[in-house]
Structures are given as C-alpha cells and as structure tokens.
Amino acid sequence: MSRGVSFENLPVDLQHKSVTQNESTADILSQLPHERLQAVLEKVPEDDVEVRKVLSLLKKPEVVDNEDVQQRRVRLAEALITDEVDPSGISNTAEVNTEEEDEEDDEEFFTPATSELISARKFLVKYSLERSRKRLQAEMQRHQNFNIKEELLSRRAELERMANLELAGSQLVSTRPISAVSLSPNNDYIATGSWAGDINILNSQTLQPLAQKLDSHIGKIGAVQWHPGSNNQIISCAEDGLIKNFQYLNEEGDLRLLGDLVGHERRVSDLKYHPSGQFIGSASHDMTWRLWDASTYQELLLQEGHAKGVFCLSFQCDGSLVCSGGMDSLAMIWDIRSGNKVMSLTGHSKPIYTVDWSTNGYQVATGGGDGLINVWDIRQRDGGQVHQILAHRNIVTKVQFSKDDNGKKLISCGYDNLINVYSSDNWLKVASLEGHTDKIISLDISNDSQYLVSGGWDRSVKIWN
User: Fold this and answer.
1) Helix (H, G, I), strand (E, B) or coil at 426
2) pLDDT(316) > 60
3) CB burial class (10 A; 0-12, 13-18, 19+) of residue 216?
4) Domain range holding 143?
5) Do 80 and 120 reside in the same domain of the chain?
6) pTM value?
7) Separation CA 284–CA 182 (nearest Å)
C-alpha cells in the first residue's frame, strides 16, 4: 500500500504551457508582482506633497537621495504592498491628515487670564460704564441748552485767542534734544525727559528748574507723564526698555525713584496712565503694548498684533478702549475690558508716531511720518476717516486734543519746526506757531487751554500763551 506524496513534494511543472497560451507558468507568475504594483500605483496620488505625507504616515523616509518624484511614488506603492495597506484608503488618510493640520493652524492661541487681569477687567467694566454714562448725560444737557448764536460767538472768540498765541518763555534744559514734556494736573509744573536720559521738573510760569534726575534712564527717554490725580507722581520710559515711577518732593526739590516696571524686551517709546490712575499702558519696539498695575508694577496684559514696533498709544476718556499706533503704519483700537481688537485704522503710508483721543469719546487722531494727521470716528463702520489734514512738511511727532471744550481744538507739532492749531469744526488751521530753531518732538496743552509747552531738538522747553 502506497503511503502517498506530501504537499511539499508535489511535482510542479513551471514550464507547462496550456493549449491556449504561449507563456509558461513561470512567466505568468513572474508578472504577478509587477501587475499588483501597477494596480497599486494607479491609486497612489500623483501630487508629490501627498506622497510624502503618506510615506510619513507609514513611518517611511519622505525623501531618499537621488530619488525623483516617480521613483518616490513607486517606493510608496511597494511600501503599501509590503505593509499590506489598502491603497484605496490612502487619499482619505491624506485628506484627514491635512484637515487635522488645518484645524491645528486655525486654532486660536489662548492663554488663560490671571486672577489679577480678571479683577482688573471687572473694575474696567464698572468704571467705563459709569464714565460713559456721565459723559452722555453731559452731552444731552449741552444739546438741550444749545444756542447756536452763543456757540458760534464762543468758538470764534476761542479760535481768535488761539490764533494769537505767542512765545512767552524759553529755557535750555538738557545737553540733548527734549523728547517729552508733560504738565501736572494743576498746571503748576512741567516734567521733561531728554535723549540724555535725564528728567527735569520746571515751574510752568517761569520755567525755573525745580528738580533734576540725571541718568534716570540709559538712552533716550520716550515719554513722561504725571499721574492724573497727583502733582507729585511721574512715570517715564526709555530706550533701556524700562518704565520708572518717580515721586516729586517739591519741598526738597528732589525726584525719588519708587520702582521699575520690567518686562519689555526693547525700547519703550510711549506710556500713558489710564484715566482711573490705577493702570499704565506702554508701547514698545518689541511689537507689543502692555497694561500694568500702577501700584504693584505687575504686568497684567501683553498684547501683540502689530507687524512692527508699537510707537504710541492712548486711552479713550471712558477708560474702555486703547488705540495703538505702530511702525507698520497701522493704528489699532482694542477693548481692554475683553482683550479684543475692535478695529484697524488704515490710512497712513509711513509709521504712526502719535495718537490721541478727543474728550468727546468717539474721535481719535493719528499722526505719522507721512506728515499727515488722520481723524477717525469710531461710531462709523471700521472707524471711518472723518478728515485727513496735510499737517506738516515732515514727520508729525505729536497730536493732542484740547481737554476743556469737548475736543474743539487739535494741536500738533512736527519736524518742520512748527506747532499748528486746528479747529475740529472743519479741521482748518487757525494758527501756526514759530519759535523753535529745530525739530519739535513733544508738546502738551494746559487743562484750561490757556497755554502750551513744547520741547525739541534745540534742547529747549518753550511756553506759549
């Protein structure tokens, strides 16, 4: 009895040819891998980017030396065969992967607010609502009592007075240009900062020096400002990236450093007190503006958004908004109660160096390197440009609305050595003040609009009344 033949020992005739074909069994078998490869290749994407993505998903090298695009497709097909992956699913896999990447790209970067910032925003909501309520009530009262004849006579008299402003005094203050001037809330003192890094306090009537702090900063001072509720507290910022808080001791004739606000990585070119006096806003060449607690010196908010350095900023009178101006020629309005950008203001062809809000609460003026002043109305969609003033023959370094008459006057200075006064009724120039022998960098107007102070490249501080 035969024991049979095992499966492994079955005879195989690879040279067999059937009656209907000329190819041997060996020839047909040799073609099967090639045909399978071709079948898989038909389902492999032709886009090289997609091919690389699938190779990456399979944990294979995306690129091999001396490999062209077609060779990479063949390698992918071979990898799919080796790994026994269904080629029909590779397109969907790549699409899903792309969608996931897109979702990651679209995901908004979010940093949870600190408890201090949340507390500050709660305060800002309550504070700004109360301020806006009072401002609107006062506006309604003015509207009810409005007398067109009296209003016209009053405005004409005020504009005539501004047109007759004259240089009343001048004081050489520093060895380098005066880059910042600021009047105290009671208008008794002038604080100045210079490119030499020194801060001086002057009597606003006589320009007599009262106190001096040499080398208060390393490098050019960008701004100085008095606390809105104090005649003895001053903040300053400079090229050294620091913000400093000083106390003016008028009896001793001294400036005492109270503390530093540290955080900016580059030059700080501007800073402002919030109307409440509880916060400080700062603008820096590190492409950020920041909000600080004025009492603890803690940084509450770091805000990015500009493509280049932020040169200036200003708080709206209600305390809810801040406008920043940048070297990217853009002004941006932010709601500091929520941290959201409200609108972008486009209209300058060169960097914006100065910005100020009108006390009416809805107009903001920007001045730039193009010599223009743009006035914007945030009540209009996208902050519609109300007027464009061909203000100076060179850089506009400062714009400021008058404080005592709902912003009826706009004052500016620039690198053409001029101070200009405009009426906000029609934005026509009513006065042009000459007296500086070089570029003017900064100015400030008294709370009652009775006089101006200015400083510039001639190293002097001048008073006009």
Assistant:
1) coil
2) yes
3) buried
4) 115-464
5) no
6) 0.75
7) 20
